[in-house]
Amino acid sequence: MKLIFEKSSKGRTAYTLPKLDVPESNIDIPTHLIRKTHLNFPEVYETEVVRHYNELASLNYSVDRGFYPLGSCTMKYNPVLNEEAASLEGFKMLHPYQEEETIQGALELMYELQNFLVEITGMDNITLQPAAGAHGELTGMLIIRKYLHDNNFNHKNEVIVPDSAHGTNPASAAMAGFKVIEVKSNSEGRVDLKNLKELVNENTAAIMLTNPNTLGIFEKDILEISQIAHQNNALLYYDGANLNAIMGKSRPGDNGFDVVHLNLHKTFSTPHGMGGPGSGPVAVKSYLKAYLPKPIVSRRENGMYFFDYNIPKSIGRVRSFYGNFLVLVKAYTYILSMGKEGLKKASELATLNANYLKEKLSKSFEIAYSSLCKHEFVLKGTMLKNYGVNTLDFVKRLLDYGIHPPTIYFPLIVDEAMMIEPTETESKETLDFVIDVYEKVLDEAINSPEVLKEAPHSTPVKRLDEVKANKELKVRYINNEEQGLD
Which residues are modified to N6-(pyridoxal phosphate)lysine (predicted)? Predict the structure, then answer.
């Protein structure tokens, strides 16, 4: 399809501003703020604008259109009810500078959501400020750093992270000023306790874990890991990306975790992708409450809700205002509509779907770790190399059958990894269709490998030259006039 700039024709307008009915401003705009070149907006009719963007939207793939099994990203369906709640005038038209007396409903929602998330995680206090999971990680690590400083543990400058961890874990720890130490996984895909004991020392500030981990396996030794950390005056940090597997079944706080971040845009069914919107609340045990970003929402004895800035040792703000509010509304709506038993059922179905897919696909594919998984599992595409193709070729071919590829080449400890997370929202019929497609593409890999190498064949955009795209990054359209060709 053509770019909107390529549809431009001089003199066409989509919208005309009414005639100016107030005096023109005499304020002098500083010279350095005035554009030196023409804006070069495309000149099109309103119909062309509307059709263009509808056509663009039709090219997008989403969980509303089909199976979207991104492992560790939890692309679960977002009920329309959540969107309707977030679209209510009283929520979407709020201004962050309104007086607290005028936003009591919103504050009550945030207060109750804080309590819900604290209960679900088994923690004591929480901040809703962080705008994403990795943002929550950084917030949690800054809280840990300030706590250690205040308790004369300044020498503790190391954070232990598993080799299977999300890449944001070591990145967040490093951004907070810590040295990252990698602990190995054992043959079961869990933290190697022997290696962990060798690494923990007087310099250990924290251990960062995802549980279940990125291989979809529950760390059954979590209580011992917690004991190892706390015996060495280190804290245990929980990456909540995979909470969707254990809601209502196991609480991080009960397993010895001191700091927890949540991904509301995953577990609690608010849409995400393309960098946002997101929400990464951070929950802590009571002795860390004094370090939470301020403000948090509290309630006075008279029942009025307010922003509480009385957090003496706070690490300060981590985001403007109070978090991504409409994402909070969606998460709140989801929790209320599901209820305690509903959240537990969601985890049960997510685990059931993942194990069903794993067992069925294990007849044709190699499973990285064969033990019972939770919400996701990892296939090894190593055998594909025997036919002259690889994991990338395989998943590109899936697109021709209308299936979004899973996460690939992660975790890094699995060769030719395909990480599949079906979530609880998919039916058995959908899963059976996926199994058939995977087996069909595997048959093609064996008998017609060129079909995979040239895939996808039916998508609007064919396979990109990724190396060229990285080396010659172009993120905006430059027309002839800007190039000086006219």
Answer: 266
Straight-line distance from the first to the last Cα atom of the chain, in angstroms, rounded to the nearest whole number: 24
Q: What is the 3-state secondary structure (H, E, C) of the chain?
A: CCCHHHHCCCCCCCCCCCCCCCCCCCCCCCHHHCCCCCCCCCCCCHHHHHHHHHHHHHHCCCCCCCCCCECCCCCCCCCHHHHHHHCCHHHHCCCCCCCHHHCHHHHHHHHHHHHHHHHHHCCCEEECCCCCHHHHHHHHHHHHHHHHHHCCCCCCCEEEEECCCCCHHHHHHHHCCCEEEEECECCCCCECHHHHHHHCCCCEEEEEEECCCCCCCCCCCHHHHHHHHHHCCCEEEEEECCHHHCCCCCCHHHHCCCEEEECCCCCCCCCCCCCCCCCCCEEECHHHHHHCCCCEEEECCCCCEEEECCCCCCCCCCCCCCCCHHHHHHHHHHHHHHHHHHHHHHHHHHHHHHHHHHHHHCCCCEECCCCCCCCCEEEECHHHHHHCCCHHHHHHHHHHHCCCCCEECCCCCCCCEEEECCCCCCCHHHHHHHHHHHHHHHHHHHHCHHHHHCCCCCCCCCCCCHHHHHHCCCCCCCCHHHHCCC
Q: What pLDDT score does 485 carry?
A: 44
Q: What is the pLDDT of residues 220-232, one digit of tens each?
A: 999 999 999 999 9
Question: Torsion over CA of 87, 88, 89 and 93, rounded to 10 degrees?
Answer: -50
The mean pLDDT value for 176-197 works out to 98
Residue type, 356: Y
Query: How confident is the model over 316-373, as pLDDT tens digits?
Result: 999 999 999 999 999 999 999 999 999 999 999 999 999 999 999 999 999 999 999 9
Q: How confident is the model at residue 483 (pLDDT cuts 50, 70, 90)?
A: low
Q: Domains (ranges, CATH) in the chain?
A: 4-59 (no CATH), 81-337 (3.40.640.10), 346-471 (3.90.1150.10)
Bridge partners (DSSP) listed for residue 17: none
Q: What is the pTM of this model?
A: 0.91
Question: d(Cα 338, Cα 425) in Å, to the nearest integer?
Answer: 13
Tell me how far apart the alpha carbons of residues 235 and 140 are, in angstroms, rounded to a whole number. 11
Specify whether the CB–CB gap between 391 and 381 falls below 8 A: yes
Confidence grade of residue 276 (pLDDT, cut at 50, 70, 90): low
- Angle at CA of residue 103, ends 99 and 106, nearest 5°: 145
